[in-house]
Specification:
about 40% helix; 14 helices; sulfotransferase activity; about 300 residues; alpha/beta; single chain; Rossmann fold; P-loop_NTPase; Sulfotransferase
């Protein structure tokens, strides 16, 4: 069980310095959020293993239980179309809370009471996954983002071209039509030294799911029941999540053509290989180093720390 250890005063929490408002996000949602000791915040840019990590955390909290409705328990706090009542309802949760965000560090409230899991994925893989996500979204989802009062900035729109076309816009617009990719990665990499922050990589989850789950459990100070671990591992597999996608996908998968199994799509990397030219691959890799530095760029591409 999580113990409330006194936070080491040598590690200052980063301060929030700005707000982000767009078709998806309203960062002010965090400003008055009342943290509890042991809260867990799962952060990513987008399409980088957020839902997978939420599933892992839910299984650790509930000891391998069947039928855990993850989106109902773990809302995207800064998603502006989520009713405030859903965020307020977190006060009623008696179990250890686990929350979702897509914000960079400097637009988020970082609390010493909470543990932060940041999950990253090679940008090319994230872009390809985002293309699938938005190409198969129903009109209702676009209407929710674009017509809900309070929209700041441009609307979100359906991709009209190929995955390669989408990638080109994503690359040239730094995450467009979503939010900045490079600053998101950079801000979390910069605070990786904090004792309440752990970086996780999508490749790591695919390469060694059992070891990744144990590492996350250790970081969260959750003692794993060895009798339950095989069940936890099975419930965190892609096959299980695909078969029970209505318990993982937001709104049960209703906003996507094909339902929840479309949201839990392939979970594969490298779909850009053979599509991007050698020049485009080199262009991406050079940009990654320029934006992030060599060590972070290498980790982002491979999941391996130097």
């Amino acid at each position: 069980m999580f113990q409330n250890h006194r936070f080491d005063a040598r590690f200052a929490m980063p301060a929030k310095t700005r707000e982000i408002h767009n078709h998806h996000m309203d960062s002010t949602r965090w400003n008055d959020f009342r943290f509890r000791d042991g809260d867990i915040v799962i952060a990513t840019w987008a399409k980088s293993g957020t839902t997978w990590t939420q599933q892992i955390v839910s299984q650790l909290i509930f000891d391998g239980a069947e039928g855990v409705n993850v989106p109902a328990l773990s809302p995207w706090v800064d998603m502006r179309i989520v009713p405030q009542e859903a965020i307020d309802a977190l006060e009623e949760q008696a179990h250890r809370r686990f929350l979702k965000t897509h914000l960079p560090v400097d637009a988020l409230v970082v609390s010493p009471k909470a543990k932060y899991l940041y999950v990253a994925r090679d940008g090319r893989d994230a872009a390809w996954s985002a293309y699938n996500h938005f190409a198969k979204a129903k009109d209702d989802l676009y209407d929710a983002f674009n017509l809900t009062p309070g929209l700041v900035g441009p609307t979100i729109y359906r991709p009209t071209g190929t995955a390669h076309d989408y990638y080109r816009e994503w690359f040239e617009g730094d995450g467009a039509p979503l939010w900045s990719f490079w600053e998101n990665i950079r801000t979390w990499w910069q605070i990786r030294h904090l004792p309440n922050v752990r970086l996780v990589h999508f490749n790591e989850l695919k390469r060694d799911l059992a070891g990744s789950i144990r590492g996350i459990a250790d970081f969260l100070e959750i003692e794993v029941d060895e009798a339950s671990f095989p069940t936890i591992l099975h419930h965190c597999s892609f096959d299980y999540m695909k078969a029970h996608a209505e318990l993982s996908a937001p709104l049960g998968g209703a906003p996507w053509e094909g339902g929840a199994s479309t949201f839990i799509n392939k979970g594969t990397n490298g779909r850009w290989q053979g599509v991007l030219s050698e020049a485009e691959v080199a262009e991406y890799e050079a940009r990654a180093v320029a934006e992030l530095g060599y060590h972070c760029a290498h980790w982002l591409a491979t999941g391996e720390a130097l």
